[in-house]
């Protein structure tokens, strides 16, 4: 059996270098690969292109990489919670490609499945479709979108086993499954790492074939992006 378990995040991130394209799972602050992001900050790699639904917040998630000016380009869907992101985008320091959320997910999934491209109706007739091939199917117009090409995908799961099989918990499932296997190397950090065969096969969300490296993460903050509570009666 291929040895996929690495001792820590430092080993998991071996090979990451300047100017690479990285996928990072998560939605808001839910299910983000906290350990991997912290390691990228420590490595001080720069010129990165990051594919992620959003760019974290100013002092957490991908916001930490933005603070250090390590990201050259963000490929995202929602970026409204990060003041530093806004500042860098408006000043021209950061290249930004905004993509409809479903298209972002499907371009990841196309890469995972080995498809070179997909057709989607999202964005037809808007700036999103400018310069892209369009085609009619059954009377409806579609836009051709290419699958992503990434060097590393960093994902976060709840449980994993030593064979790389993964289980996600609740909303942390989000973009993480689609990014597994969508890059040359997929790194999974998990809250609990168990021996191969310990997970119920019926509960596995991602089979180990899509994961090259796996390790047990530590010190997860699991921040709440927007805490909303009702006033007491």
From TrEMBL:
<keyword id="KW-0808">Transferase</keyword>
<dbReference type="InterPro" id="IPR012792">
    <property type="entry name" value="3-oxoacid_CoA-transf_A"/>
</dbReference>
<protein>
    <submittedName>
        <fullName>CoA transferase subunit A</fullName>
    </submittedName>
</protein>
<dbReference type="InterPro" id="IPR004165">
    <property type="entry name" value="CoA_trans_fam_I"/>
</dbReference>
<dbReference type="Pfam" id="PF01144">
    <property type="entry name" value="CoA_trans"/>
</dbReference>
<dbReference type="GO" id="GO:0008410">
    <property type="term" value="F:CoA-transferase activity"/>
</dbReference>
<dbReference type="InterPro" id="IPR037171">
    <property type="entry name" value="NagB/RpiA_transferase-like"/>
</dbReference>
